[in-house]
């Protein structure tokens, strides 16, 4: 019983320590496609969402997540699977708003009623001047090694020189 209380308090502390920007950004739903038909309840679906990097202007990411249907999915208590894909691209001139750490949180989304979350994090390959984005899901007790990576070369845009991502890594 004490272990469950400690785990619950740890989960609350982890959520409270998340940067507000990463929690507050709502992804844009692009579309959903049904994958498994369910009778009288919502179907299982693949949902495609878009987000903008909150700290790097000119970069957008799209991720696809499975969404469980059925009764649990209908009431929002289904634990979602960890199969998530990610693609990020330069969509305009890249401008860094502030310095960032390697593995900085870009976006976080809950994937279960309590302890599972999906995270998109960013790093910089200084040698190649490439932003590297990683999406993964983790769970308080047992995580998942499933992940997806996308790279965004920092390129000049409309004659503007390309900044060096390494100049913005703390």
Explain what the structure shows.
The structure is a single chain. 15% of the residues lie in helices and 45% in strands. It is mainly β and 170 residues long. It has a four-stranded antiparallel β-sheet, with no helix packed on it. Strands 5-6-7-8 form a four-stranded antiparallel β-sheet. Strand 1 and strand 2 (44-52) form a beta hairpin. The protein starts with a helix and ends in a 17-residue tail after the last strand.
Give the helix/strand layout:
Layout: H1 2-16, H2 20-24, E1 28-36, E2 44-52, E3 56-67, H3 70-74, E4 85-96, E5 104-110, E6 116-125, E7 130-139, E8 147-153
Antiparallel strand pairs: 1-2, 2-3, 3-4, 5-6, 6-7, 7-8
* Overall pLDDT metric: 80
Helix fraction by DSSP (H/I, runs of at least 4): 10-25%
Strand order of the largest sheet: 1-2-3-4
What's the number of helices?
A: 3
Give the biggest beta sheet. 4 strands, antiparallel
The percent range for strand residues is: 35-45%
H/E element order: HHEEEHEEEEE
Rg of Cα set: 18 Å
Anisotropy-based shape = elongated
Kindly report how far apart the N and C termini lie. Answer: 41 Å
Low-confidence stretches: 1-24
Structural class: mainly beta
The total beta strand count reads 8
């Amino acid at each position: 019983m004490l272990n469950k209380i400690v785990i619950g308090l740890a989960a609350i502390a982890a959520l409270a320590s998340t940067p507000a920007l990463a929690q507050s950004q709502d992804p844009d739903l692009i579309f959903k496609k049904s994958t498994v038909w369910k009778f009288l309840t919502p179907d299982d679906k693949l949902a495609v969402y878009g987000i903008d990097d909150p700290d790097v202007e000119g970069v957008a990411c799209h991720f696809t997540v499975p969404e469980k249907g059925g009764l649990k999915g209908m009431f929002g208590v289904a634990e979602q699977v960890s199969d998530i894909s990610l693609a990020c691209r330069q969509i305009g001139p890249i401008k860094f708003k502030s310095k960032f750490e390697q593995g900085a949180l870009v976006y976080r989304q809950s994937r279960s009623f309590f302890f599972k979350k999906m995270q998109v994090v960013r790093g910089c390959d200084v040698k190649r001047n490439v932003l590297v984005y990683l999406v993964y899901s983790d769970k308080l007790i047992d995580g998942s090694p499933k992940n997806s990576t996308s790279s965004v070369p920092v390129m000049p845009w409309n004659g503007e020189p390309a900044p060096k991502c390494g100049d913005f890594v703390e």
